[in-house]
UniProtKB/TrEMBL annotation:
Domain of life according to the entry: Eukaryota
Gene3D superfamilies: ATP12 ATPase, ATP12-like
Keywords: Chaperone, Membrane, Mitochondrion, Mitochondrion inner membrane, Transit peptide
InterPro entries: ATP12_ATP_synth-F1-assembly, ATP12_ATP_synth-F1-assembly_N, ATP12_ortho_dom_sf
Membrane-topology annotation of the record: Peripheral membrane protein
A GO CC term attached to the entry: mitochondrial inner membrane
UniProt-recorded name of the protein: ATP synthase mitochondrial F1 complex assembly factor 2
Record-linked Pfam families: ATP12
BP-aspect Gene Ontology terms: mitochondrial proton-transporting ATP synthase complex assembly
Family: Belongs to the ATP12 family.
Quaternary context: Interacts with ATP5F1B; involved in the assembly of the F1 component of the mitochondrial ATP synthase (ATPase). Interacts with FMC1.
Protein purpose: Plays a role in the assembly of the F1 component of the mitochondrial ATP synthase (ATPase).
Subcellular compartments: Mitochondrion inner membrane
Length: 281
């Protein structure tokens, strides 16, 4: 089964200034056009604004999205995580490493103007081409590797959601029953818009609904999910050798993006009023 998997650890800044004066600051950037920029601030803090939403402040100036909207998140946990990304930057801002910030910008600006139903449809599309559902006929070693590594996860999710997915070596892939799609659709409807954004991001990274949901449900770790999504590539590496730095870099980058997406799903599902409810009880 899975071997030599490393445990992903995250390091967060612990000092966040909770107070800041109100002022406007419009930070525009594109991860494609401006992947890096010289750091222009010293301190990062969070404040709670109107409607209980949390804001990010850079030297007491309010962060805005690339689309010009005030950057706000629904709870303190997510705000701290985003502030950590900004605080962890050094002399040069590497926007391509700020996955949580990017996901928040995607939610707030919604550049493709999609609603929750459209996002669910997009996620379910991946079920028809899921990584773990496509199997090879040869070589035999890879056939057995896919069976040994993917089948247990596939069986788990079928039992977990009481669905049938299956696998196929046909170029068309397995035929997913409508009942299975309906079950997953109903499940995804329990996610809010923020969580759906994170989940779709994870699915896109892993090219797999099965692996993504198994990871979100904490049946798989980030390392395991990434390993399973790269199974054929890992087999090729074992057979033909590793390209120095390249394969490892790709793997760690995929881990970082996948971990960020999973964390975003969890944090955007947090309820900001939990503390108040506990006090009331």
């Amino acid at each position: 089964m899975l071997k030599s998997l490393f445990r992903l650890q995250s390091h967060c800044l612990s000092r966040i200034n909770p107070t800041a004066q109100k002022s406007w600051f419009h930070l525009k950037y594109s991860t494609a056009a401006a992947a890096e920029r010289k750091r222009f601030y010293q301190d990062v803090s969070i404040t709670q604004g109107e409607g209980g939403l949390y804001e990010i402040n850079l030297d007491r100036r309010k962060l805005k999205t690339p689309g010009g909207k005030l950057f706000t998140v629904p709870n303190e946990a997510l705000a701290i995580a985003v502030a950590t990304e900004w605080g962890a930057q050094r002399e040069t801002l590497k926007f391509y490493t700020m996955h949580l910030t990017t996901l928040c910008n995607t939610v707030l600006d919604n550049p493709t103007q999609r609603n929750e139903e459209q996002m669910i449809n997009a996620a379910l599309k991946f079920l028809e081409t899921d990584t773990v559902c496509y199997r090879v006929d040869e070589p035999q070693a890879l056939v057995e590797l896919q069976m040994n590594e993917w089948d247990p996860v596939l069986s788990w999710i079928e039992n977990r959601y009481n669905v049938v997915i299956g696998s196929s070596s046909s170029i068309l892939g397995p035929e997913i029953p409508q009942a299975t799609k309906d079950t997953f659709r109903q499940h995804l409807k329990s996610y809010n818009f923020w969580s759906l954004t994170g989940l779709e991001y994870v699915i896109t990274q892993l090219k797999s609904v099965v692996l993504s949901m198994a990871m979100i449900d904490r049946h798989l770790s980030v390392e395991q999910a990434v390993f399973l999504s790269r199974l054929e590539e890992e087999y090729q590496i074992q057979s033909w050798g590793n390209v120095e730095w390249a394969h490892d870099y790709d793997m760690y980058e995929l881990r970082a993006r996948t971990a960020a997406g999973a964390l975003f799903v969890q944090l955007s599902s947090e309820i900001s009023t939990v503390k108040k409810k506990l006090l009331q009880d």
